[in-house]
Amino acid sequence: MTLKSALLCSTIMCVAMPALAEEKRELSAHMHGHGALNIALEGSQLMMELEAPGFDIVGFEHAATSDADKAAIETALAQLSKPMDLISLPEGAACQLSEASVDLHGEEDQGEDHHDEEHEHEHDDHGSEDHADDHDDHDDHDDHDDHDDHDDHSEGESHSEFHASYEFTCDDPSKLTKIDLTYFNVFPNAEELEVQVVTDAGASKVEASADMPTIKLN
Hints:
Layout: H1 3-15, H2 17-29, E1 34-42, E2 45-53, H3 54-58, H4 67-80, E3 87-88, E4 95-105, H5 113-126, H6 129-138, H7 140-157, E5 161-170, E6 178-181, H8 183-186, E7 192-199, E8 202-209, E9 214-216
Parallel strand pairs: 1-7
Antiparallel strand pairs: 1-2, 2-5, 3-6, 4-5, 6-9, 7-8
């Protein structure tokens, strides 16, 4: 993410913290069909950040172990990396994509090579038999408690989320009065997006859906 993107993210957080806090609480409950979209417009720069449950994007949230699951994730990442297939901006604004970043957070990311390498590295650090024996001798009771904690964590917080961020440069931002979301057509499991908008005019929060896909910026 560029410095400009980071500043725009800070703008959203500072101006609309109460709404975002509520949004985060909703996301922590991980409701299928419900994601979050943050939008900031500053000068000629348009920044968008999307967070969506794995179910909304690929239809499942378990770790991707089968070839079909891995292919679905790769397809989804490719789709999310093309924001102009997910949104429609007014032609008069002449906005061009300058940066796009897509990540998967949670159990499914173990299906990707770079996350597999990290997982294997952690396993090598802690998985030797000598280390395991020492750990078992020293912390039998603690291991039981840790296992319980892990089970609780897995049951409550093991869901996956897709995160995407986009940055556009617009030649005529005055024409950027709305954003139409085709996101719901591409990902039919997605039902709603909690949308937080920050512009020079102030901050607002709306709900977008397939039935109400238009977000007004002014």
